[in-house]
Amino acid sequence: MPQMIDVISSLSVFLFLYAAWTDFRTWKIPNTIVLALVALYALRTVAVILSSQDVGAALFASSGIGGDVGAGLLMFALGVALWAFRLFGAGDAKLFLPIGLFIGWHGMLPFSFLLLVLGVVTLLVLRLPVPLPVAHLAFFMRVEEIRASRKVPYGVVMVFAALLTLALPIIRQQLR
């Protein structure tokens, strides 16, 4: 079962990156990506329960599935509130659900901090001029379009904050 959890985690990283890419390119996050991420989390949940010695702890502990679902629902509610005040797009609000599921309750504080830092860095980078030798490249042309429209694809920042949050335990382990 640990191999299945690793495969699911790898697929979820790919889908998160795809969500960020589509948000960058189109300012939209398709429902299919969000639903696929929720389905992957459900598969991960089944794998965790089947491989767990203590099913109660796996389900109801704050570091278990209960904490993950609580984090996902809380973040989704926050996303809907931000969408209602027109601070976020609907895709960004929906993306908060799978992000919360995957980072869990204990990942919310690092995620919030990373989201703040990456958001500020993104806004500062968008103020910098694009160097002329690379201004003709499609990526930088899109950055110019984002700058001109003043619509920031927050899904990109959210995904990178989530992936860094998911990588923190691995980084801590490598530093020991």
Strand-helix topology:
Blueprint: H1 2-26, H2 31-51, H3 55-60, H4 65-84, H5 90-103, H6 108-125, H7 138-149, H8 154-175
Domain Prepilin type IV endopeptidase peptidase: 13-123
GO molecular function, one term: aspartic-type endopeptidase activity
GO cellular component, one term: membrane
Give an account of the 3D structure.
This protein has 176 residues and is an all-alpha fold. Helix content is 78%, strand content 0%. Helix 1 (2-26) packs antiparallel against helix 2 and helix 4 (65-84) packs antiparallel against helix 5. The longest helix is centred in the N-terminal third of the chain and has 25 residues, at 2-26.
The first-to-last residue Cα distance is 26 Å
Helix tally equals 8
Percentage of residues assigned to helices? over 70%
The share of residues in extended strands comes to under 5%
Rounded Rg: 17 Å
Derived from helix and strand composition plus strand pairing, the structural class reads: mainly alpha
Runs in which pLDDT lies below 50 for 5 or more consecutive residues are none
The largest pleated sheet is described as: none
Shape annotation: elongated
Average of per-residue pLDDT values: 92
Number of E-state strands = 0
Number of domains: 1
Order of helices and strands: HHHHHHHH
